[in-house]
Amino acid sequence: MGSMISISIPPGSLGAKAAAWSLLLLWLMLLPGQGLAESKQVKGLPPPAVLNPAADLWRDIRQRDMATTGTTQVRGVDSGVLINANGDKWRKFRMDQLIPIGGYLLLGMGLFLILFYLIRGKVRIAGGASDRKLPRYTSYERLIHWFIASIFIFLALTGLIILFGRPLLIPIFGKELFSVIASASKEGHNLMGPLFLVALILVFIKFVRRNIYQKGDMSWLLRGGGIIGKKHVPSNFFNMGEKSMFWMLIIVGSVIVASGLVLIFPIFGQGREWMELAHVGHAIGAILMITVIMGHIYIGTIGMEGAIEGMSTGYCDLNWAKEHHDYWASQMEKRGEAISNEAVNRFSDPDTNRSLGRELREAGE
Amino acid sequence: MARMKFYCDPERCIECNACVTACKNENEVPWGVNRRRVVTINDGDDGERSLSVACMHCSDAPCATVCPVDCFYTTQDGVVLHDKDICIGCGYCFYACPFGAPQFPEDGAFATRGKMDKCTFCAGGPEADNSSDEHRKYGSNRLAEGKLPLCAEMCSTKALLAGDSDTISEIYRKRIINRSASVMARGVSYRDASFRAPYNAAGKSSAKE
Q1: Which long-range contacts (CB under 8 A, 24 or more apart) does A356-364 make?
Q2: For a Cys staple, A148 with which of A87, A199, A200, A276, CB 3.0–4.6 Å?
C-alpha cells in the first residue's frame, strides 16, 4: 500500500502521511465487522455460504446453475420461464456471425465466379456443335427442375431480403417502403416454403437412381472434374460434381425444410429454444445452399457452352455429351438414341422424340 | 431526462395477478396476448417467490438489435416502443428477448404471427398521444397524461414499482436496508430465509431467537 502511494505522491509529504493514516483507519473500521460475522457463526448458525440471499434468488431466475421453470396463470409455451437463457446466444449468432459471415460468403462466391469467368472463360464444346443431339431430360424432368429452381430462387431472394434488408435496403428505400417489401417477403416465404418440400420430394424420386455414386466418380474427383486444365473427364449421366450437388440439395434441403416447418407453424408447442435452434439450422443451411446453387447456375449458364440446352430443350448436343458425360453418351449412341437436329426441331416434345429416334433406328436410318 | 424502469420486489409480490388483469383491461390487448405475467418459482416449497414480468425496457434492447425491419425505438423517457405499421411479425424479437415480452396474436391460417404486441410502459406508440389510432394499436398512453403504468400504480403490496430508475432504485435500496440486515449477516440462501410468517420458525430469519 505504502509503495503504491509513494508512486503518486513524494514520500514524506503531508498528503502521503494523511493517506496512509486514513487507509489504516479504514482497515481498523473493517475489523469489528469481521469479528461480528465470526461471533454469529459461533452461535451455531450456518456458515455464511451466501452473503446476499437475494443474489441466490436472482441466480436461480437467471438460470445460471439450473433450469428454473416457475408456474404462472398465463397459459402459453415457456410462459413459466423467467429468463430465456439462449436468447442472447441467438442474438449474437444472428448479428455477429450470420449477417457478416454469411454476407461475405455470398459476396465472396460472387466475386470468385466473376474472377473464374475472367480467367477460365466460357468452356466451349471442343469439337464444336455437332449435327446430332441426344435426348437428355424428359418434359416432366425439366418441369420439376424448373419447379424447384423457381421456388428456390424465390425463397432465396425473399430470405435474403429479410436477412440483409436492414443494413442494405433500409438506407435505400426507407423504413416504410422496406416494411412493405419485407412483409411481402415474409408472407411469400411462408407461403412458398412448404411447396419446396413437395418439389424436393419430386426431385428426389425422379433423380435419385442416376445420382447414386458409381465407378469412375472417384477418378473424376481426383482429376478435379476437368476444371483445371483442358482435358475433359468422362462420367455417367451425372458427374461426380452433379451427384454431390444433388445429395447436398437433398440433405441440406431437408434440414432447411424441417427447420422451416418448425419456424412457420408456431402451434405445435415448440418453445423459443427450438425456434432459435431451427433458425440457426435454417440460416446456415440456406446460406450454404445458395452458395452452391450460385456455382450451379454459373456452370449451367455462362460457364459452359451447351450445358443449359438439356434443361431448356430437353436435348443436348452429341459432342457436348461425349465431352462431359462420355460413358452415358457412348452408351446412348450405341443404342442409336442420337437424332438429327432437324428431327429435334420438328418435334418439341422429347417423349415423342425418343420414340421417334427408336422408329428411325428400326427403319434402319 | 428520466429513464423509466420496472422493478418487482419478490419479497412483496403475493401473486395476486392484479397487474396482469389491470394491464389487459387498460390496454385492451389482443386475444391470447398477455403483456404482463406473474411467475412463481419454487411454488409450494421453501423459497417460494413470485415475480411480475413484462417488457423491462432494456437500455440496449436485444429485440431492437435483431429486428429485420428496425421497428423499435427508445423514447426520451427510456421506454422501448415499436411501430406496428412497420412490424412484419417475424418473431425474431421473441427469440432474442430474455423476458419473453413480445407476444404475437394469432393471425390467419395455421396461427401465423400477427403484429407483435408488448408492454409499452403505458406510453402508447408512435401515433399522436391518446389518438384513437394509438389506442387501437397500443392501448392507453398514461405517461402522456402524467400517470405511471397501471400495473404498478395499482399493485396492492407495492411490489411492482415503475418510474424513473433513480427513484425506483432509491425506494428499493431503502427497503433492503430497513428489511433487517439480519438475513444478510446470516448469509443464508433465500430458500431458507423469508420475511413472511414462516410455517416453521427454525432457521428462518424472521423468527425471533
Answers
A1: A357/A135, A360/A336, A361/A336
A2: A199
The arithmetic mean of pLDDT across residues B36-43, rounded, is 91
Q: Distance of alpha carbon A118 from its chain centroid, rounded?
A: 27
How many Å lie between the alpha carbon of A295 and the closest alpha carbon of chain B?
A: 28
pTM of the model: 0.81
| Any domain includes B184 | no
Q: What is the tens place of the pLDDT at every residue in B127-164?
A: 999 899 999 999 999 999 999 999 999 999 999 999 99
Given a cut of 50, whether residue A104 has pLDDT beyond it is yes
Put simply, the answer to whether B69 touches A166 (Cβ < 8 Å) is yes
In a mutagenesis test of the A interface, which of B53, B87, B90, B95 is the best target, namely the one with the most A β-carbons within 10 Å? B95
Q: Which residues in chain B have Cβ-Cβ distances shorter than 8 Å to A88?
A: 62, 96, 98
Res A168: pLDDT: 95
Identify the residue among A36, A63, A73 best suited for mutation to test binding to B, counting B beta carbons within 10 A and taking the highest: A73
Identify the CA nearest to A89 among candidates A266, A263, A272, A255: A272
Q: What angle do CA A63, A65, A69 make, to 5 degrees?
A: 40
Domains of chain A by residue range:
96-362
Return the bridge partners of B141, or none: B123
- What pLDDT does A32 receive? 45
CB contacts of A186 in chain B (<8 Å) are 88-90
Would B104 be classed as within a structural domain? Answer: yes
CB atoms within 10 A of CB B134: 20
Task: Look up the domain containing B128 and give its range.
Answer: 4-173
Average pLDDT of the segment spanning A291-297: 94
Nearest to B188 among A50, A61, A175 (CB): A50
Which candidate in A50, A61, A160 is best for mutational testing of the B interface (most B CBs within 10 A)? A50
Question: What's the CATH code of the domain at B85?
Answer: 3.30.70.20
Q: What's the pLDDT score for residue B176?
A: 78
Cα A161 → chain centroid? 15
Please measure the distance between the N-terminal and C-terminal CA atoms of chain A and give it in whole angstroms.
106
- Out of 1.10.540.10, 1.20.950.20, 1.10.1740.10, 3.30.470.20, the CATH code matching A96-362 is 1.20.950.20
Contacts of B20 in chain A (CB under 8 A): 73-74
What radius of gyration do chain A's Cα atoms show?
34
